[in-house]
Amino acid sequence: MKLKDLIHYTGQFLQVDRFRDYCPNGLQVEGKSDVLKIVTGVTASMALLEAAHAENADAVIVHHGYFWRNEDARVIGMKRARLKFLLDHDINLLAYHLPLDAHPELGNNVQLGKLLGIEHHGYSGEQNIISYGALSQAIDLNAFSMLVGERLHRQPLVIGEAGKEIKRIAWCTGGAQDYIEQAIDLGVDLYISGEISEKTVHIARESGIAYMAAGHHATERYGAKALGEHLAVKFKLNHQFIDIDNPV
After folding, report:
1. How far is residue 192's CA from residue 134's CA, in Å, rounded to a whole number?
2. 173: phi then psi, degrees, rounded to nearest 5
3. What is the residue-wise DSSP string for 149-169?
């Protein structure tokens, strides 16, 4: 399909215009005008770009792209190397950050909820970025943390009493630990995000909520993959999700 049609459809589908984001959503680096093979991944690292080129990708679609707010605008070092690689090989780079977190069908949040068996009840927080819902039946925190470890293939860091009963859950993938106080206001038993800060521990302990840091990368593997699968079916494209592991 034509690149311009891919950009238009994906932008409309993810409703990118309704988000105030930290980076540009959509096309970030322009390559060839025709797209047959797309590779999706979490972050546009050099390792992902090289893997995409090896798979003859025409476009790479990621959650974490480039040109973040307040970053050094100069094209030097790592940024120069990545941009040069894309331009030399005529590969398009598309990135969708908050729109891919919050999408009600393919977003990171809803995909993670499905994976963990959480029934999605609704959204909260700024730009509806926090999801909340419940398990079909209560489970203790230790047992649920083991389930999360099995599903995400990495053991989460957990704050809370192992025997605490968990049923109502709020979650927001990635580096969203600072939304814990909004989760507390929702009256949930557990808040899940990707990362943890020093203050998160004290907030969790003193409020009585359990907190789970399940990994920034580990919680955000699923939105880009789901988007790639959707585009492949709708437009008869070849698609491959490539997971470049990251322990954070």
Report:
1. 12
2. -70, 165
3. HHHHTSPPEEES-TT-EEEEE
Q: How far apart are the C-alpha atoms of 225 and 229, rounded to whole Å?
A: 6
pTM: 0.96
pLDDT, tens digit, 9 for 90 and up, residues 109-128: 999 999 999 999 999 988 99
Taken in order of first residue, the domains within the chain and their CATH numbers are: 3-101 (3.40.1390.30), 109-219 (3.40.1390.30)
Non-local (6+) Cβ contacts of 131 within 8 A are: 109, 110, 113, 120, 122, 123, 124, 170, 171, 172
Q: Compute the half-sphere exposure of residue 192: CA atoms within 13 Å on the CB side of its CA.
A: 31
Spatial CA neighbour of 218 closest among 195, 191, 239: 195
Q: Are strands 119-124 and 130-140 parallel, antiparallel or unpaired?
A: antiparallel
Packed helices 141-152 and 108-116: angle between N→C axes, nearest 10 degrees:
120
